[in-house]
Amino acid sequence: SQVFFKPIHNTAAPSPTKRHTKISVIGTGNVGMAIAQTILTQDLADELALVDAKADKLRGEMLDLQHAAAFLPRTKIQASTDYSVTVGSDLCIVTAGARQIPGESRLNLLQRNVNLFEKIIPPLAKYSPDSILMIVSNPVDVLTYIAWKLSGFPSNRVIGSGTNLDSSRFRFLIADHLDVNAQDVQAYIVGEHGDSSVALWSSISVGGVPILTFLDKQQIAYEKETLENIHKAVVDSAYEVISLKGYTSWAIGYSAANLARSILRDQRKIHPVSVLAKGFYGIDGGDVFLSLPSQLGRGGVLGVTNVHLTEEEAQRLRESAKTLLEVQSQLGI
Ligand code: 6V0
Questions:
Q1: Of 283, 268, 274, nearest in space to 314 by CA
Q2: With CB atoms counted within 10 Å of each terminal CB, which end of the chain scores lower, N or C?
Q3: Residue 13's pLDDT band (boundaries 50, 70, 90)?
């Protein structure tokens, strides 16, 4: 650099106050690339490492992102099929996944993804032993459990993106219904990511006003049907996007980047993410990961919020836990 710049004085540079951060994204398909590009535009990392099994596609994606350097905050972008490129990561985000073969059972697909994780997680843990693992690949709750097992990491450093995305869809639909800003809507979907997720109606508030109590006081009929339709729309929305455009990408990209920010910048924000749920809300019978509102910071999962669940909600959580445990017991690992 001395070729271009004449030093103005000889004193050593002060040590940087901002920590150097490195994020690795495994799997550069639709989801991995949406996450990578959101990380870049939001200036969340000094270094970004990409890994995929397809070398050409991977290099193409890396070059395409590098060519945006003039328009983005400075980030060193590297890519390789070799996991050594991930060395020293603060956060590893796993989006690699096998695609369902027509007629294939979900269990068979899951077993193939478990086999894939056996190749992915041990090298990640080896090269970045102090990192936090964020699993996005589906079925996210079971694969987060698998990643926890394969990594040997403490459970606070293994997180599934879980229902953070479902909750954002939920907040969007409520905001749309009430004509308010989704960021003012507090609402959580917890439990299993997907069909059996649980909407926490009693905790919904808009600008601090608890919605159900408010409707009650105004003697506005409790619109149970409307609320249930909103939850149904959340569950259906992923299928709808996939049937229309073939995959989902932008919202999961923002969702994962939102989690990355809370973790790496130690924001201590509450997010519904997949965590080791044993012992919460009467969930017992084994190690199982499910989404619960969790506080995230530099140490990973700092704690789980003691949110009030109705007996029905808690019962549904326990049923999801039981189903997941049954699936886990059928896997070869
Ligand atoms: P995709 O576009 O098929 O990308 C998957 C990528 O994984 C491809 O680029 C593959 O080459 C790569 N891959 C396969 N095997 C390996 C391997 N051994 N090592 C490294 N890379 C490998 O799928 P897409 O990006 O659309 O989805 C990825 C995963 O995210 C799927 O499991 C989705 O179901 C899941 N999603 C999870 C969401 C969530 O909220 N948790 C949301 C959306 C999608």
A1: 283
A2: N
A3: low
Task: Provide the ipTM.
Answer: 0.99
Whether the Cβ atoms of residue 115 and residue 333 lie closer than 8 Å to each other: no
- Ligand 1 nearest atom to the CA of residue 81, by list position: 20
Let me know: does 26 contact 96? Beta carbons within 8 Å: yes
The 3-state secondary structure of 164-225 reads: HHHHHHHHHHHHHHHCCCHHHEECCEEECCCCCCEECHHHCEECCEEHHHHHHHCCCCCCHH
Give the Å distance between the CA of 209 and the centre of ligand 1: 39
CA angle 39, 237, 306 (to 5 degrees): 70
Enter the tokens of residue 236. 């259906």
What pTM, to 2 d.p., does this model score? 0.94
- Whole-number Å distance, alpha carbon 275 to ligand 1 midpoint, is 20
- Say how many Å lie between the CA of residue 30 and the centre of ligand 1: 7
**What atom of ligand 1 comes closest to residue 32's alpha carbon?**
25
- Measuring from each residue's beta carbon to the nearest atom of ligand 1, which residues come in under 6 Å? 26-32, 51-54, 95-97, 99, 116, 119-120, 136-138, 140, 161, 165, 193, 247-248, 252
- Given a contact cutoff of 8 angstroms between Cβ atoms, the answer to whether 307 and 293 are in contact is yes
184, pLDDT greater than 80: yes
Residues 158 and 140: their CA atoms lie apart, in Å, by 12
Q: How confident is the model at residue 245 (pLDDT cuts 50, 70, 90)?
A: very high
Are the beta carbons of 51 and 58 closer than 8 angstroms? yes
